[in-house]
Write a structure and sequence with these properties.
- It is a single chain.
- Helix content is 35%, strand content 23%.
- With 74 residues, the chain is α+β, with helices and mostly antiparallel strands.
- The chain has a 3-stranded antiparallel beta sheet with strand order 1-2-3, with helices on one face.
- Strand 2 and strand 3 form a beta hairpin.
- The radius of gyration is 13 Å and the shape is globular.
């Protein structure tokens, strides 16, 4: 499967949570505050980064697509 951003279907936003679905049926969710909360709780740093102060759902989709493409190459 190609990991292009065009293969992510944006399902919209509810209560600040953005949702995408891949053409294979996988769902991806993003909220600007989640990364910070997850890092604090686990002590782990994210595999990908996004500037949450200015980030839009379009920025998140682009970063997600790049991450999936890099994972597919491994």
């Amino acid at each position: 499967m190609s990991r292009d951003i065009d293969n992510l279907i944006y399902n919209g936003e509810k209560d600040g949570v953005h949702n995408w679905e891949s053409i294979s049926g996988m769902h991806f969710y993003w909220h600007p505050d989640w990364l910070h909360i997850a890092e604090d709780m686990t002590g782990h740093k994210a595999a990908i980064s996004i500037n949450k102060d200015n980030a839009t759902h379009h920025d998140a989709a682009k970063v997600l697509s790049q991450h999936l493409s890099n994972q597919a190459k491994k």
